[in-house]
Each structure stands twice: as structure tokens, then as C-alpha cells.
Design a protein that fits this description.
The protein has 14 helices and 39 strands. A hairpin with a 4-residue loop joins strand 8 and strand 9 (about 170-180). The protein folds into three domains: about 65-365, Beta-galactosidase, Chain A, domain 5 (Distorted Sandwich); about 380-695, Alpha-Beta Barrel (TIM Barrel), CATH 3.20.20; about 695-745, Immunoglobulin-like, CATH 2.60.40. The protein is of the alpha+beta class and about 750 residues long. A ten-stranded antiparallel β-sheet has the order 7-8-9-10-21-16-15-12-13-32, with helices on one face. It has a seven-stranded parallel β-sheet with strand order 31-30-29-26-25-22-33.
Length: about 750
């Protein structure tokens, strides 16, 4: 009997081991849990052994917990702790110290022990084992891994080499001071990895300046125009942070209805009591995320940082025909730099953050002002020219505004007192609006090349800015003019990127650039237009594995930039739709700049961060006012955010657009809108012309639904969205209206 019991024990034990092995193999997430448990155990390991493994160039007699000053400018001091490479930045203007690590006691009190350890880390690392049957990203940090550290001095800073022995991953981080800024750089050549562990992302200084619930202040992140989240003592627990890929999603999607707003600029910020910083990704921004984690997400600390992306994952087809996610093979070996600019006291607000990035664009990125002092506010005029209506045998081209009619509308606007017009023609080619590739030739039913020539001659004579809008990004399978095999964007799986119906494609930017001169510019060379308005390039960016023109996200943007520059060279200008930062250098006008953020639960306010960066540099518009459900509220938003007045018209009735690709243009008849449009244009010109060329230096909420925007010369614009008048100081702001207060008023 005893023998049988022993045999049963052995049998059940063996079965248990087999089942456990099968579960672990079938559920990689359990393997991840085991890995992370091991990581946590290492955190609690022998600290003395970890210290013994650490190599530095600093004095071995230095106390383990002390900081040593290693760099200094007139404004800042940089302190370094050799035991764990933590840094402190002291703002000498008021003595405030920014820490890379949250004080341990505070972190323990406000979060679980594992995350308390994480809050001491100098970097977070995301990696993967490419040999596993199921793709999974694992996370770790400098506290968990206890890397071997080697340092060497730099001019006004220090370089730190991290060797993560267990993962066989290593890289450098350089910390240097420049005037009122700290620069953190990860040299591309320094990143090394093993065959079993590949680097996915590195987040430098993930808890730099992290604020507690008791601190007063807010985080700023580039969600659409900009978003602000205030620190709160009482808040929810959040399942997700704000994480956005700079310049648009990493993954190409064909569903734009639920897409979050772009992070159009690679910036983020934090205000803690009377101090603030702006973080800007100055190198490697095309492959980076902005990450804001509010208090309540994993730990009760408010923190904002950057994530540097070194490779992405993609959907691969396995031999059995099933799909599986895999990491990209090649590591993006480029230098990455994040600059932190510091502010104190009265400068500690998002207005000064925007001003700092504006200065960076002008001084270091070559963005030149397109608006001169004394320029009039232009009237933004979109004209839908033609569009095709699908029919059983042949598509029917609907001319909604001919070239002659476009001239008539411009003449009429001039007679009504609209002195400055910035016009944009949609659907001017033979295929009509939203048919791509467009064919590039003026539609004969609109008046052909001769008709467009007469219109452009009039525009040039009357100093009317005239853009021809076209799309060199999208391509639809029902239209000819491109090869679905050779001319389109290809994914890492070597298949063309398309929707489930193989209907919509994206065009390779290199091939579009190569043929842009011959197919587009040369035929239009004799026209007196202002330039091309490039649709698509300002709100999407992508990797392309096209075998003829393989491009990184930066390479794609560079190809588009060259196309814009060619338009500038030939016609004098170029425009773009969407506003991603790489378009600013070449744009004389920006279209489609959003007024609202994505609506995260922890966002407290939408702010005009983007507009504060570009106002007075480049004219910009958002959605056409006649397409908004409440035109007056849209008008007030345009005033508050410094937009130019902007309408989208047709000469003929909007009913003609029923059952076309653009049935959303339900209220576009020029005759129905021209009176209101010219009245509001004259009001903006009269009250706001003096600030049109000025930088927007401040923006604040005065009370519920009442906002104030301030400009360089001290002029303040106060907008009241309430259905009742409000009193601000000595001024009365009428209901659903605005006032302009000159300096001293």
C-alpha cells in the first residue's frame, strides 16, 4: 500500500510539472510575471554586492548618498550621485532643486514598494526576447537592474555608461548644462544589445521633477493644440496614461473617426509650485513618444517624460498563415537628445514654455516669420471646385465652382471690403476632390488650364494668395495613376499597407518627390499661383519598407519637406494641412490646426500651446466656420486662439454634393454666408489687426467659460462664452462675445 501511495505521488507530481510547463509555454504573460517577480527579488537583494559591482571614475571615499557638483552655468548647477547616477539640477535664481529621483520616503508613502523603487530610477527600459514564440515587451529600470556604471567627464557635464549585465544591454547617457537648460543625450552608437534581448524603448529621467498630490501646479502635453492636467489631492485611479507618438501614431490606421489628436510638437512641460520646465526632444523626435502619467496611474505622483523608440513591432504572417506580432529586426541607431529648459517665479507657466520652443524653432530650426508687422489679417477662403458622383456606368463630375466663378467671388469679396484674401482651391483637377492620385491637370469642366491661368493672373494682380490643394499621400484603388505594387508604402512584413478591402493605400514619399517636378510643377509653371497646399503630410508620418525607396519616419518627412521647398522655389510659397512640426520651416500657411484635445479623463483644460508657438510666425486656420454646429462659438474660439477667419464655400448649391464623397459640406452656399463672413472679418480686422504679427505670450482662464489671451505689446483679448455678460476688472464682456483691452486698460 505504501508503494502504491508513493507511485501515485510521483505520478501526480509529474503530471503537475507537465501541466505547469504547458501553461508557461502557452501563456507568455506568465513567463513575464515570473521575470518581473525575479526582478523585484533582485531589487531587494544585497545592496552591498550591487555597490561592489558599480564602477565609476569618482572618488571611492565619497559617501554613497552624497551629491557632487559637476557642472555650472550662470543660472544652473548640476549635481551627480555616483552610487546610482541620480542627478539634481539647482536653479540658482531661487534655489529650487529638480530631482531625477523622488525622495524615497515620499515615494513609499504614495505607492507600492515596487513602484517606490521605480521612482528612484534614472531610466526605464522596454525590451523583448525575439526568440520567444509570442511577442511580449518587458519593462525594467535602473533600480531593478543595478547596472554597472562607468563615468567620464564632459565639458560642463558627465557621460554615464550603463551596463545591464543580466540582459547584456548597455548604453550611454550624457548630462550637460547649457545656459538655462539641461540636455540629456543617448548617443546612438552607444546602444548595444544581445541576441536574446532587444531594446524597444528607453525613457530617460522618467520621474524628473515628479510632483506630489500636495504640490500646486500642472502638467502640459501636446495633445492637439495642447492639454493641461492639474495636480489634485483627490483623484481617480487611472488605467492608462497619456502616451502619444510624436507626429502621429506609429501604426498606420485607416479609421480616422476615433483617432486621438496628434502630438504635433515634440514638447512637454511641468509646473511645480513656483517653478517649471519645458522638455523638448531636439534630436530623434521622429521616433519618440511623449508620456504623461497622472497621479493615480500606478503611483500617486504626477510625472511627464519622453520615451525614445528604438524599434517597433509589426504584424507578420507565419508559415501556417496565422498572424503574429514581431519586433522589427533593425535597431534605430541615431542620437537622441532631450532638452529641459527651466523657469521660475513669474516665468513658470505654459506661456513661457511656448515662448522657449518658439525661440528654438527660430534660432536653431530655421523657421522664419511669414507675417510682417503691419500685415492685414487674411480672409481664409476655401473653394470647392469639383467632385465626382458615382453612377452605375460612368462617374458624373459636378462643377460646384468654376474658375470664372471663383474669380467672381473674389471680386465680390473685394467690393465688400475684404482687403486681404488667402484662397485655396479643392478639387481643381479632372478627377475632382477626394480622388487620389488626382491626375494633376485642371478640370476641363471648370475652365481647364486657360481658366485657371486667368484666375491665377487675377489673383497675382490683386495680391490674392492662391493655393492649389492636392494630396500626395493617399491613393485609392479605383483611381489610376499609381502602382499598388511599386508606388505604395510597404510594411515591415513586406506587404503593401492597405485596409481590409485593399482599397486605400499610402504613397511612397520618395517616389512622389522624384516625379513632383515633372508631373506637377512643370505643367503649372506659367501660373501665377502662390504655391501648392500639401494635404496629408502634416498629420501623418510613417516608416516605409518600399524596396526602391526605403524610408524612416524622418526620411519620409524629409522627402515631403523637399517637395514643399520645390513649391517655394517655383511659386514663392507652400502650405500644409495638419501642422506637424517638420512642416513649419517651409509653410507660409497652416491648415487644419485643431482647437480641441482628445478628451482624456485627467485633462482639465485645452490650451493653445501650439498656437502660442506659431502665432505671429505663420498664419493658421482650423475647421471652416460654416461647417461648425455653432458658428458663433467657433468664431469666439478663433478669436481666443488667434486663428484667421476661414470659410469653405461653393458658388453652386450644397445640395449638389449629396451622394458624393464630400456630403459633409452641407452648408457652403456663398450667397447664404457672405454677409456674416464679411461682418466678422471686418470686426476681427478692426479689433485684432494690431496683434496679428505679434507673439501670443500668455493665456489664462479667468473664470468659468471666460479666457484671456495676452500679446507682446500688452494687449489682452478677453472672450466670454457664457450666455450672460461678465465683469472683468473695470470691463464688461458681453454674452458670447469678446473685448480687446489695450495695455494699461
Amino acid at each position: 500500500m505504501k508503494t502504491i501511495t508513493v507511485k501515485r505521488s510521483i505520478y501526480y507530481g509529474a503530471v503537475g510539472l507537465i501541466i505547469a510547463a504547458l501553461v508557461i509555454l502557452a501563456l507568455p504573460s506568465l513567463r513575464s510575471a515570473v521575470d518581473r517577480a525575479n526582478h523585484e527579488l533582485r531589487v531587494r537583494g544585497d545592496a552591498a554586492q550591487a555597490a561592489a559591482d558599480t564602477e565609476t571614475t569618482t572618488d571611492a571615499k565619497e559617501p554613497a548618498g552624497s551629491f557632487k557638483k559637476i557642472a555650472e552655468t550662470d543660472r544652473l548647477e548640476l549635481m551627480f550621485r555616483s552610487s546610482d547616477s541620480a542627478i539634481e539640477v539647482k536653479d540658482k535664481s531661487n534655489g529650487y532643486v529638480w530631482n531625477s529621483a523622488v525622495p524615497h520616503k515620499q515615494a513609499v508613502e504614495e505607492g507600492n514598494e515596487l513602484w517606490a523603487a521605480s521612482s528612484q530610477s534614472i531610466f526605464h527600459l522596454t525590451y523583448t526576447d525575439p526568440n520567444r514564440p509570442a511577442f511580449e515587451q518587458l519593462e525594467t529600470n535602473s533600480v531593478i537592474e543595478q547596472p554597472v556604471i562607468k563615468t567620464k567627464p564632459l565639458e560642463n557635464g558627465i557621460s554615464v555608461h550603463y551596463d545591464l549585465k543580466q540582459l547584456k544591454i548597455s548604453f550611454d547617457m550624457e548630462f550637460t548644462l547649457k545656459e538655462n537648460a539641461l540636455e540629456v543625450k543617448v548617443p546612438g552608437k552607444s546602444v548595444q544589445e544581445s541576441k536574446d534581448n532587444w531594446v524597444m524603448k528607453i525613457a530617460p529621467l522618467p520621474f524628473f521633477g515628479a510632483a506630489s498630490d500636495q504640490d500646486k501646479g500642472y502638467a502640459v502635453y501636446p495633445d492637439g493644440p495642447g492639454a493641461l492636467s492639474t495636480f489634485k489631492e483627490h483623484h481617480s485611479s487611472y488605467l492608462d496614461p497619456y502616451r502619444a507618438s510624436v507626429y502621429g501614431p506609429d501604426t498606420i490606421t485607416f479609421n480616422n473617426f476615433k483617432r486621438q489628436e496628434n502630438a504635433m510638437l515634440p514638447i512637454f512641460g511641468l509646473k511645480v509650485n513656483n517653478n517649471a520646465f519645458l522638455g523638448m526632444i531636439t534630436e530623434g523626435e521622429y521616433d519618440a513618444n511623449v508620456l504623461y502619467s497622472p497621479s493615480g496611474y500606478l503611483i500617486n505622483l504626477n510625472r511627464v517624460t519622453s520615451e525614445l523608440v528604438y524599434r517597433r513591432d509589426y504584424e507578420a504572417v507565419k508559415k501556417d498563415g496565422n498572424l503574429a506580432r514581431k519586433p522589427e529586426k533593425d535597431l534605430l541607431r541615431e542620437d537622441r537628445t532631450v532638452r529641459y529648459v527651466f523657469f521660475s517665479d513669474k516665468e513658470a507657466d505654459y506661456g513661457h514654455m511656448a515662448s522657449a520652443y518658439r525661440d528654438f524653432l527660430i534660432k536653431e530650426q530655421g523657421v522664419t516669420p511669414r507675417i510682417k508687422k503691419g500685415d492685414q489679417i487674411p480672409f481664409g477662403l476655401d473653394l470647392l471646385m469639383g467632385i465626382k458622383k458615382s453612377q452605375i456606368l460612368f462617374d458624373h463630375f459636378i462643377p460646384t465652382t468654376t474658375f470664372d466663378q471663383a474669380k467672381e467671388l473674389m471680386v465680390d469679396l473685394k467690393k465688400r471690403g475684404v482687403t486681404d484674401i488667402s484662397a485655396n482651391l479643392l478639387g481643381w483637377t479632372g478627377k475632382g476632390y477626394l480622388a487620389y492620385p488626382s491626375g494633376y491637370k485642371p478640370a476641363s469642366k471648370l475652365g481647364g488650364t486657360d481658366g485657371l491661368k486667368k484666375l491665377s493672373d487675377y489673383a497675382k494682380e490683386q495680391n490674392v494668395q492662391l493655393f492649389l490643394q492636392d494630396d500626395y499621400v493617399d491613393a485609392w484603388s479605383e483611381f489610376d495613376g499609381f502602382s499598388k505594387r511599386n508606388d505604395v508604402v510597404v510594411g515591415a512584413n513586406h506587404f503593401a499597407v492597405t485596409d481590409r478591402y485593399s482599397y486605400e493605400f499610402f504613397l511612397n514619399a520618395g517616389k512622389q518627390n522624384a516625379q513632383f517636378e515633372n508631373k506637377v510643377l512643370d505643367p503649372l509653371r506659367k501660373l501665377g499661383i502662390s504655391g501648392i497646399n500639401f494635404d496629408g503630410i502634416g498629420y501623418i508620418n510613417y516608416f516605409d519598407y518600399n524596396k526602391d525607396y526605403p524610408l524612416t519616419r524622418e526620411g519620409t518627412a524629409q522627402q515631403w519637406g523637399e517637395m514643399m521647398q520645390k513649391s517655394v522655389k517655383q511659386f514663392g510659397s507652400a502650405a500644409s494641412i495638419g501642422g506637424n512640426g517638420y512642416t513649419l520651416k517651409h509653410s507660409s500657411r497652416l491648415f487644419g490646426i485643431p482647437m480641441d484635445d482628445s478628451g482624456y479623463f485627467f485633462t482639465d483644460e485645452t490650451i493653445p500651446l501650439y498656437q502660442m508657438v506659431v502665432h505671429g510666425l505663420i498664419p493658421y486656420s482650423g475647421d471652416a466656420q460654416n461647417l461648425f454646429y455653432d458658428p458663433q462659438m467657433q468664431y469666439l474660439k478663433m478669436v481666443e486662439y488667434g486663428y484667421m477667419p476661414y470659410y469653405q464655400f461653393t458658388k453652386n448649391y450644397a445640395e449638389d454634393l449629396k451622394d458624393t464623397y464630400y456630403s459633409d459640406l452641407f452648408s457652403s452656399d456663398y450667397s447664404n454666408w457672405v454677409k456674416q463672413a464679411t461682418t466678422q472679418y471686418k470686426e476681427m480686422s478692426e479689433k485684432l489687426q494690431s496683434v496679428w504679427s505679434q507673439a501670443m505670450i500668455d493665456h489664462r482662464k479667468l473664470q468659468d467659460n471666460v479666457y484671456e489671451t495676452e500679446y507682446e505689446d500688452g494687449t489682452r483679448v478677453i472672450v466670454n462664452y457664457n450666455p450672460r455678460e461678465v465683469q472683468i476688472g473695470d470691463s464688461i464682456v458681453p454674452d458670447k462675445n469678446f473685448i480687446v483691452v489695450k495695455k494699461g486698460g
